[in-house]
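Example record for the data management plan.
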Amino acid sequence: MAKPKSKAPNKSVTVYCNKCRFKLLQYKKGGTGSLVKCFIERITKNFTEQLGICPSCESQFGRETMIRGVPAIKIIGGKVLVK
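Corresponding structural encoding:
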């Protein structure tokens, strides 16, 4: 499969924990669909100590993986809120 576009999208979203509403990430999201994966190169601000785990309630919201040969976080459904 093709790699994601090298140029980051203009749309920036904030990702919150759905359980405790802690701010997790600032992310440059492309497209209009729901947030399923976060490419690590598109994360502008990271408010977590450990990728994929909320520092406030310590629940896991995603798993580190390789998608199309690029490191990413695969989001677990219903664990995050995007605004």
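Summary line stored alongside the record: The chain has no helices and seven strands.
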